Amino acid sequence: MIEVGDPNDVIRTFRERLMTGVYSAGDVGNPDMVKGELSPLWHRVEITAVEVVYPNPDEQVVHPGEPLEFRIGYHAGQGQVTDIVAGIALYSSMGQMIYGTNSHLMHQDLDPVDGDGSITFSIREMPLLDGTYRMTVGLHNVGGLQYDHWEQQVPFQIAAPGRDVGIVRLDTKIIVEPNGVVGGHGPVFRPKAPRPDVRL
User: Fold this and answer.
1) 123 forms bridges with which residues in the sheet?
2) Which domains does the chain have, with CATH numbers?
3) Are β-strands 97-102 and 146-158 bridged in parallel, bridged antiparallel, or unpaired?
4) How many CB atoms lie within 10 A of CB 181?
5) How far apart are CA 67 and CA 53, in angstroms?
6) DSSP states of 125-146 as a string?
7) Which residues, 6+ apart, have CB-to-CB distance to 177 below 8 Å?
8) Per residue in 39-82, pLDDT tens?
């Protein structure tokens, strides 16, 4: 009889043997092999919790133009990690990504992490319309190998006034100018000439 052992130990051993010497997603032929539990860096840094910090603690929504913070708790229990990138992506209720960024794209090198701590994404204003949105959180190295990843697991609420439709709430005003003229301020678009009748 063959003794299999704990599935987590089997995955870890497989990952470590398969990925020895791999430091970047580009070093792996199959991109799926660097995602999730197959990443050789999986859980060297773990996401322990994500807190949604609304501007008014008594009101669990954010209104357009108000700030919103996402505090990501982490645990690096295997020693100091010097190469860490934190990223977020915001999704509509239909699963459409409306915004994504990470510390590397923002040209912000994060300090080495060790033990427990938090990384905060502070968004100055949320120009979104009413609805429940979801956030993806990811920690990886500069080469794209994942430490941990939560896919659309963090919901947050937006409450917007009015009856606008879509996803983004733009700060818009309407101006009526009697005798106003179109032209002289930017590109002008006019109706296309009607197509002549074609008779066969």
Assistant:
1) 68
2) 40-158 (2.70.50.60)
3) unpaired
4) 7
5) 9
6) ---B-SEEEEEEEEEE-TTS-E
7) none
8) 889 999 999 999 999 999 899 999 988 999 999 999 999 999 99
